[in-house]
Write a structure and sequence with these properties.
By secondary structure, this protein is of the alpha+beta class. The chain is built from one helix and six strands, in the order H-E-E-E-E-E-E. It has a two-stranded antiparallel sheet. It has a two-stranded antiparallel ribbon with strand order 2-3. The mean pLDDT is 81.
């Protein structure tokens, strides 16, 4: 399971997508973000703390990439939902 989650988040990072997580013991979800690391095989770390993989209820992925090109260039929106 860990390898599949690592591959998923590597693909999310490659496509520059945002995600949010929901833990088992709460109905609240985190804010959309793109920072995530795996400090050890059974844990993930995001801006909201360090969590065991077994405490994740769901991972929601925003399939719209907002690419910032420059200050005078309009924000480019790319829809990855067909991938």
């Amino acid at each position: 399971m860990f390898d599949a989650i690592v591959r998923l988040f590597n693909e999310i990072e490659r496509l520059n997508l945002n995600y949010r997580i929901q833990l088992i013991d709460t109905f609240e979800v985190s804010a959309w973000d793109h920072f995530l690391i795996f400090p050890t095989p059974n844990y993930i770390e995001c801006r909201y703390g360090i969590f065991r993989l077994t405490t994740l209820r769901q991972i929601q992925i925003d399939s719209i990439e907002n690419r910032y090109i420059g200050r005078r260039v309009a924000l480019k929106r790319i829809d990855h939902s067909r991938l």
